[in-house]
């Protein structure tokens, strides 16, 4: 085989590999866009459903709040401990927090809340088995509260109402995202890696064949 012909074949192989990689990446990106659209539709449906069944889940203008229909539970004095568990809860506007008493003599008394918020907590002391819930449909921010009889031993809690309903990433509370959650299907990474490897192998193979694989007269068969 002549060097010129071989170079054409090697170049064509590398180009074909690159084309396959690009096509695969585009296909994966399209799939990701479709999945993202489906996820948005599901979220919208949940918000509408929550608005129909949850008090305080509406902004007053017919628009469902993002956290409507969501409930998170806080244990009050579980197993006789003077703590709120979890101590900090993250929710979106419209979500509900339910406090469940696990021992006697506790309350939920607001200590510091956002301006214009109207949450009054539940200040009467209650015993094990009592439940109290509240839907946070007011302003975003931190709603700090305490157990009045046990404030001296640090029985405090916080409800954080924010846009995402999740801890800020900078605090280390957010879960690590995998490539699919970041909007890039994991298969696209394999396509890119395979494409690069194929191109490298083609170039290395071409180099060795051109350097060592041809006879002295392969490029000029008619030469004596």
Labels describing this entry:
224 residues; alpha+beta; Immunoglobulin-like; 2 domains; five-stranded mixed β-sheet; four-stranded mixed β-sheet; 2 helices; 9 strands; 35% helix; 21% strand
The helix content, as a percent range, equals 25-40%
Q: What is the CATH homology-level superfamily of the largest domain?
A: Cupredoxins -  blue copper proteins
Global geometry: elongated
- Enumerate how many helices there are, as a single number: 2
Binding site for Cu cation: 106, 147, 150, 155
Protein name: Plastocyanin/azurin family copper-binding protein
GO molecular function: copper ion binding; electron transfer activity
Biased composition (Low complexity): 36-56
How does this model look, in words?
This protein is α+β, with helices and mostly antiparallel strands and 224 residues long. The chain folds into 2 domains: 3-48 and 183-213, no CATH class; 67-162, Cupredoxins -  blue copper proteins (Immunoglobulin-like). Helices cover 35% and strands 21% of the residues. It is built from 2 helices and 9 strands, in the order αβββββββββα. It has helices at residues 3-53, 186-213; strands at residues 71-76, 84-85, 88-91, 96-101, 106-112, 122-126, 131-135, 141-146, 156-161. The strands form 2 sheets. A 5-stranded mixed β-sheet has the order 3-9-8-5-6, with no helix packed on it. α1 packs antiparallel against α2 (186-213). The relative contact order is 0.16. Mean pLDDT is 74; it is low at 29-60 and 170-177.
């Amino acid at each position: 085989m002549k060097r010129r012909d071989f170079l054409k074949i090697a170049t064509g192989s590398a180009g074909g590999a690159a084309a396959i990689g690009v096509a695969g990446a585009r296909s994966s990106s399209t799939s990701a866009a479709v999945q993202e659209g489906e996820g948005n539709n599901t979220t919208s449906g949940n918000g509408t459903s929550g608005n129909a069944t949850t008090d305080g889940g509406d902004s007053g203008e017919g628009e469902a709040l993002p956290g409507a229909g969501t409930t998170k539970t806080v244990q009050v004095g579980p197993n006789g401990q003077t703590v709120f568990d979890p101590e900090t809860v993250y929710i979106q506007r419209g979500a509900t927090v339910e406090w469940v008493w696990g021992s006697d003599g506790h309350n939920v008394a607001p200590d510091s809340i956002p301006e214009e918020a109207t949450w009054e907590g539940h200040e009467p002391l209650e015993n094990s088995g009592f439940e109290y819930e509240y839907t946070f449909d007011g302003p975003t921010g931190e709603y700090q509260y305490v157990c009045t009889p046990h404030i001296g031993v640090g029985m405090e809690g916080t409800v954080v109402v924010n846009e995402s309903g999740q801890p800020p990433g900078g605090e280390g509370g957010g879960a690590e995202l995998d490539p699919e959650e970041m909007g890039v299907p994991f298969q696209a990474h394999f396509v890119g890696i395979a494409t690069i490897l194929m191109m490298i192998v083609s170039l290395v193979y071409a180099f060795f064949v051109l350097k060592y694989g041809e006879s002295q007269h392969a490029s000029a068969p008619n030469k004596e």
